[in-house]
Amino acid sequence: MANSMYEYVKAFEQPDVLLPNTWIVVRIDGRGFHKFSAKYAFEKPNDRRALDLMNAAAKAVLADLPDIVIAYGISDEYSFVFHRSCALFERRSSKLITTIVSTFTAHFVHQWSNFFPDQPLSVPLPSFDGRAVLYPTVQNLRDYMSWRQVDCHINNLYNTTFWALIQQGGVDAKEAEKELAGSLAADKNEILFSRFKVNYNNEPEIYKKGSIVLRDYELVEPGTASETLDEDSAKTVEQLVLSKTHEERDRKRRAKARVTVLHVDIIKDEFWERRPWLLS
Ligand code: ATP
Ligand code: ATP
Ligand code: MG
Ligand code: MG
Ligand code: MG
Ligand code: MG
């Protein structure tokens, strides 16, 4: 590219490279989805079509970007986790966030009619915001994922009870809110069971646990996970060459693996122990 007198403007661009060797979480969230869900008459408290569409868009994002290790979605939000060794876009924050947001939004719009065949999209069109947060340790990252799943549980128990009071109990939103103010989980379970014959435990897992998107590999039986070398500094040259070959092989395997959606507990150790490649 030829130099011009205008080139100097390039120097105004701020560097935004994310700290190396840290887990990158990009969380996106639907803009004004309270209104959006009313416009398209989402079923309350959970519209299954909308969740399936969110999951389809997230699966497409993982298929497009092999650097993503795992993603977790609830309501109108999705968290995408990049491995701490990720070097995509030289770890430039704005590039990572905007690529996720636009790829997700494009797939969300593209697949809309598969999930809402009778309701064509019209302006204002759905859009998403995004942010990147860094987590330095595996424990911090797991605590982040646990935080989102606990949020899913708390919100879903509240919403399920709130809408039961309105839809089956015949009260208005104000009264339902008043009735639930200060209530504990046990109180909500009790209202659901004694007044509406709903056993919360039997509610669909997708509503209680949210959605986990990852690549499908063979599971490791509990207690058989092999030791992995994780400090480059402790490796010989031969081991480094070998680990580069492994990295290449892993990258190809990742690109080929089928992307699937699960609705399971990610707070307890078992999920992570059976999939040691996720956090290694
Ligand atoms: P903001 O732009 O600040 O994110 P918002 O209106 O999107 O505002 P959120 O806190 O993100 O607010 O909440 C999303 C809202 O979208 C929920 O409160 C719920 O009303 C609605 N919603 C999202 N997904 C579903 C779904 N699958 N079923 C029913 N309602 C949904
Ligand atoms: P990156 O992902 O790094 O942006 P890129 O392939 O998009 O890679 P750019 O530097 O953004 O590279 O250049 C965009 C390229 O897209 C152009 O070089 C050109 O080949 C092509 N292109 C974009 N718009 C047009 C157009 N209207 N007509 C023809 N070619 C186009
Ligand atoms: Mg928000
Ligand atoms: Mg939102
Ligand atoms: Mg939200
Ligand atoms: Mg380009």
UniProtKB/TrEMBL annotation:
Keywords: GTP-binding, Magnesium, Metal-binding, Nucleotide-binding, Nucleotidyltransferase, Transferase, tRNA processing. GTP binds at residues 29-34, 75-76. Binds 2 magnesium ions per subunit. Residues 6-136 form the tRNAHis guanylyltransferase catalytic domain. Mg(2+) 1 binds at residues 29-30, 76. Residues 139-268 form the Thg1 C-terminal domain. Signal peptide: none annotated. It catalyses: a 5'-end ribonucleotide-tRNA(His) + GTP + ATP + H2O = a 5'-end phospho-guanosine-ribonucleotide-tRNA(His) + AMP + 2 diphosphate + H(+). Mg(2+) 2 binds at residues 29, 76. Adds a GMP to the 5'-end of tRNA(His) after transcription and RNase P cleavage. This is tRNA(His) guanylyltransferase.
